[in-house]
Write a structure and sequence with these properties.
Strands 1-5-3-6-7-16-15-14-11-12 form a ten-stranded mixed β-sheet, with helices on both faces. Strands 2-4 form a two-stranded antiparallel ribbon. The chain has a single domain, classed as 3-Layer(aba) Sandwich (Rossmann fold), CATH 3.40.50.880. It has helices at 9-25, 107-124, 139-142, 160-171, 204-211, 312-326, and strands at 57-60, 72-74, 94-98, 104-106, 128-131, 145-151, 175-179, 191-192, 195-196, 215-218, 222-228, 242-247, 250-252, 263-268, 285-292, 295-300. It is built from six helices and 16 strands.
């Protein structure tokens, strides 16, 4: 699937922001977080009806946390068993945007990021589907997608069968893109403010083989400088060499730079902000990728707040990431399963 270059990015960013706001206004209201029943499904077409002649989108939901738009807190853990209904005419090879939370949840941030990601896919003319239903992680439905974005997910979202299906899909050549909260679960523990639940980090393969490092905490939201290290990567197209912005700066138990096969794309400069108790010793990677079997895993620690997904440079990066994930030549080095 080949991406066409956007000639005027400023106009494209405005389109994405406008489409994202419209998309957010049309979302299905959050279901009761305590229910294990399948959530109401939005009609196909996210931004319009699907058709046999062009890509389209759809949306399904389940497992949402604190009710009410803009709610922040801990979700009531649920595990989905009934897969969402994906539009029958959704073409293959597109993007699955998955944002289930069984831990910390910021409704506004997820709605904003889901909306911007869907708007980018719409702008690109890509097939896409947005869901919070963990039962989408089955071999049949995963086979319809080339890229799965774990968008600000939290907590242990999948049952054992769903984990096995996602693991097989990724290792056989799929592409994972984790945003912010997807890499922000603490080491496994039994108790949270919401009661008994498992951290996403209880799935050891997710930490060791996909993310590669364990989250340990974060400094408070403040401006800092992100240094782009791989200026030739498609992931950094259109980004400044020093990207100055505010965020919640994640820290990890070890440096992904020290791990074989990990490609560091960008790092935050600890001299440009106060890391408090969450310094990584000066070298602080924030975006990286590596092979997982024949597949690829990309993680970005950026993107805590809802407003951050309306930043033109953040939209540029998300667009880059989607393009990178869907272009098979970017994974040529993973084809041997190394």
């Amino acid at each position: 699937m080949k991406f066409q270059r956007i000639n005027c990015f400023a106009m494209a960013a405005l389109f994405v922001m406008s489409a994202a706001m419209s998309y957010g206004q049309e979302q299905v209201p959050a279901p009761n977080a305590t229910s294990n029943a399948p959530a109401p499904q939005a009609g196909p077409g996210g931004f319009g009806p699907t058709s046999e002649t062009g890509p389209g989108g759809g949306r399904g939901q389940a497992g949402r946390g604190p009710g009410g738009r803009g709610g922040v807190g801990f979700a009531t853990p649920t595990y989905d068993t009934t897969p969402p209904e994906i539009p029958s005419d959704l073409k293959g090879g597109g993007v699955l945007i998955f944002s289930k939370t069984n831990g910390f949840r910021d409704n506004a941030a997820i709605e904003s990021s889901d909306s911007s990601l869907a708007a980018i896919a719409k702008l690109r003319g890509l097939p896409y589907f947005v869901t919070e239903n963990g039962a989408v992680m089955n071999a049949d439905q995963l086979s319809k997608f080339k890229l799965v974005i774990w968008n600000n997910t939290s907590g242990d979202t999948l049952n054992d069968d769903q984990k096995a299906a996602f693991k097989a899909w990724l290792e056989k050549g799929g592409v994972y893109f984790g945003t912010h909260g997807a890499g922000g679960d603490p080491a496994p523990r039994d108790q949270t403010p919401a009661g008994l639940m498992r951290s996403a980090a209880s799935w050891k393969w997710l930490i060791s083989d996909v993310l590669g490092v364990q989250f340990i905490g974060h400094a408070h939201i403040q401006p800092a400088d992100i240094h782009i290290e791989d200026t030739k990567s498609p992931l950094t197209k259109g980004l400044p060499a020093v990207w100055h912005r505010a965020d919640e700066w994640y820290a990890f138990s070890e440096n992904p730079r020290s791990k074989p096969g990990f490609h560091i794309i960008a790092a935050v400069d600890e001299k440009s902000y106060d890391p408090a108790n969450f310094s990584m010793g000066g070298d602080h990677p924030s975006i990286w990728w590596h092979c997982v079997g024949k597949g690829r895993a990309l993680f970005s620690a950026l993107g805590h707040g809802a407003e951050m997904y309306q930043e033109p440079l953040m939209i540029q990066f998300l667009d880059n990431a989607m393009s990178w994930g869907l272009d098979p030549k970017n994974g040529s080095g993973c084809s041997a399963g190394k």
